[in-house]
Amino acid sequence: MVSSRKQKLFGIIGGSLGHSLSPLIHNYLFRRFRLDYCYTKFEIEHTQIAKIIDSIRTLNISGANVTFPYKEKLIPYLDKLDKTSQTTGAVNTIKNSHGKLTGYNTDLFGIRATLQNRLNINLKGQTILLLGAGGAARACLVELIRQKPKRIIVANRDFARAESIISRTRISGNNTDIRAIDIHGINNPEYMERLSLLANSTSADPSFLSGVIRKLARNRFHRDMKIFDLNYGRRALPESCRKYPIRYIDGLYMLTAQAAAGFRIWTGIKVEPDDIYKYVSKKIAG
Fold it and tell me: Kind of pairing, strands 247-249 and 226-229?
C-alpha cells in the first residue's frame, strides 16, 4: 500500500492475518474522523521481528497493533512499556513518537468491557477456568484477578508455561487462589468445582478444544455458567462447543473495545466500542 508524504501509516503485526478485522475497523475510524491515515497488515515470520521494528522507526510508521504470536516476543525491541504492558508482560499496541516506540496492552480494556457490557457477570468469590497461557491469556488473567474471584484455574497443554504466567502475574492485596493444571487433567475434581466462567484464550486445534469442552460439559457446566471466547471468526470455538444451554460470547466485542482504546492512544480521540461493534457486525453480516 502506497501512502502520500503526509499520510500517516498504521498496521497490524502478526503471523497469519487473513482473518484480521483490524484494517476494517481502523480504516473506518480514520474515514469517520476525516484523518489522512491508512492501516494495513504486516504479516511476518519469527525471524523478521527486528526488521519490522526497525521499519517502524525508519519509515516513520505511526503505530501498530500486535497479535499472535508476537505479543510477548516484540517487547525486547521496544523503548518503553506503559503500566498495562508491564503488568501483563504482553504488548498489543505500539505508538511511535519521533522514533521512540512505546508498548501498551489494550486487551485489558477489551476484556473488562466484554465482562461488564456483554456478559454482565459478577465474578467476585466465583471460580474461573482460563484456557491458554499466551499473550492474550496474560491480559485475561490480570483482568480476572481484578474481579476478585475465589479461584482461577489456568489450563494449558504446556504446564510449565501455565505456571510461568501465574508466577509473573501477581496483584498486591489480592487473595485469589490461582493454580495451573495440565489441560489433559481438566476434569480432575481435586481442582475443578462449579464454574462461573470459562475464558478461552487459546487458538488450539478446534477438534482438540471440542474434546476439552465435551469433557467439561459432562460434570462442570450449568445454566448460570458463561463462556467468553477471546477469539472471533474462524478462530473462535467451533459450533459444537456452543450448543450447551449456557451464555456464549466470542471475542468480537473485545476486539472493538481494545481497538477503541488503541485508537485513542494514537489520536487522542475517544470513540465508543458499541459504535465500532455495530459497524463491524453489519459488515460481517453483509
Answer: parallel
Q: What angle do CA 174, 180, 181 make, to 5 degrees?
A: 150
Q: pTM of whole model > 0.85?
A: yes
Q: Which residues contact 146 (CB under 8 A, 6 or more apart)?
A: 112, 171, 174
**What is each CA distance from 208 to 126, 273, 275, in whole angstroms?**
26, 32, 35
In whole angstroms, give the CA distance from residue 139 to residue 230. Answer: 11
DSSP string, 161-197: HHHHHHHT---TT---EEEEEEGGGTT-TTT----SE
Evaluate if residue 189 carries a pLDDT over 70: no
Catalytic pick among 6, 8, 51, 71: 71
Place of cell 504466567: 165
Helix 252-267, helix 273-285: angle, nearest 10: 130
| C-beta atoms surrounding 106 within 10 Å | 24
pLDDT tens by residue, 212-234: 887 787 777 777 889 999 999 88
Active site includes 243? Answer: no
Q: Do you know the residue count of the chain?
A: 286
Residue with the three cell numbers 491508512: 38
Domains of the chain: 8-105+258-285 (3.40.50.10860), 108-250 (3.40.50.720)
Residues 6 or more apart in contact with residue 108 via CB below 8 angstroms? 84, 87, 88, 139, 142, 143
Rounded Cα distance between 120 and 126, Å, is 14
Torsion, Cα 2 27 61 260, to 10 degrees, reads: 180
What are the DSSP calls for 38-54, one per residue? Answer: EEEEEE--GGGHHHHHH
